[in-house]
Design a protein that fits this description.
14 strands, alpha/beta, Rossmann fold, seven-stranded mixed sheet
């Protein structure tokens, strides 16, 4: 009888211990702007890669069907109710997330963002690079093709997007500092991260501004949209698309000349690194300047506080792709690596 009692106690102890280990597996969720686009499909790969490298964490990505700030807030509210351990977000509208993030923090949930360097109510924001420097760089590339003169037009996905507007701010600054003969056609245009809208606005611009030489995109949907408009109007060689995009989305337009140069960071790496920061915080580790977060361009991070006192992590991870080096991003079967 004593032996049976001992065995029963042992089994109970093992079950309790196993349950304890299971409960220690923490959940980190990345909430992107919208699902179903190549950029965030690639970001998911990074989050999944992190989960594979760190099996003691359950990390995954989710998002709404469209880039609607209210839909993103709803997803975050649902995650708070589920009691996840960390919520990461690529905000459509950084300000709209602050109340939800506050509720998450009150529930002991860590919050972080990517692409939101002015974000409040988060432990960290993670940026692939300094946004102003990136914008200045894209302007240099575009200005060279334009011969340092002419009419250009900037786009943003949303007028509330901090990152997109900072890129355009950098472009405008660089034009003012180095290219006085470059002029904007009109104020930055919002295309709602929608390729059809960017196409329609591209057509309008080509009609309204016959002297227009270039259109610069911030959202990944801009380059293919306006490049299509350029192609349909027979303007290749006279007008060109530039901006943030991926080879898988704009590669064919680079080949045709409707687009001249695209710029990006690898979304999978950003997803991995942001998840890594959340993981380290959950484990009680400190994030310090100069540390290596395990992905190219993030080997020696810089940390600066934004105006709200939130520490922003900066890598140095931008990539330029044009017709000449597109082959480096092309698989043997002709498909694109990213």
């Amino acid at each position: 009888m004593k032996k049976l009692l001992f065995l029963a106690l042992l089994v109970t102890l093992l079950l309790v211990t196993s349950l304890g280990f299971a409960q220690k597996k923490q959940t980190i969720v990345m909430v992107v702007k919208l699902e179903g686009v190549a950029w965030f499909d690639n970001m998911r790969l990074g989050v999944e890669a992190f989960a594979k490298d760190y099996p003691d964490v359950d990390a995954y990505q989710t998002g709404a069907e469209n880039a609607d700030p209210a839909a993103q807030v709803k997803i975050i509210e649902d995650l708070i109710a589920k009691g996840v351990n960390a919520i990461l977000a690529v905000p459509n509208d950084p300000a709209s997330l602050v109340p939800a993030f506050k509720r998450a923090n009150n529930a002991k949930i860590i919050t972080l963002t990517h692409e939101a360097s002015v974000q409040q109510q988060v432990s960290y924001d993670v940026e692939a690079f300094d946004n102003i420097a990136y914008g200045r760089h894209m302007m240099d590339v575009m200005a060279k093709w334009m011969g340092n003169r002419g009419l250009w037009q900037p786009f943003v996905g949303h007028l509330t997007s901090t990152t997109h507007n900072e890129w355009v701010d950098g472009e405008v600054m660089q034009a003012k500092d180095k290219y006085p003969n470059l002029k904007m056609a009109t104020d930055r245009l919002e295309e709602q991260e929608n390729q059809q809208i960017s196409y329609e606005k591209g057509l309008e611009l080509l009609k309204t501004y016959p002297q227009l030489k270039t259109m610069m995109g911030s959202a990944m949907s801009t380059v293919p949209g306006v490049a299509r408009a350029i192609t349909e109007k027979g303007m290749i060689g006279k007008v060109a698309a530039f901006g943030t995009c991926l080879p898988s989305v704009a590669g064919d337009y680079l080949k045709s000349g409707a687009a001249i140069s695209i710029h990006f960071w690898v979304p999978a790496d950003a997803g991995y690194v942001t998840t890594r920061v959340a993981y380290d915080l959950l484990k009680g580790k400190k994030i310090t300047a100069g540390m290596n977060l395990g992905r190219p361009g993030y080997e020696k991070i810089i940390i600066k506080n934004n105006k709200s006192g939130v520490p922003v992590i900066y890598g140095a991870a931008w990539v330029d792709v044009n017709k000449d080096n597109l082959k480096d991003w092309t698989n043997p079967d002709g498909s694109y690596k990213l």
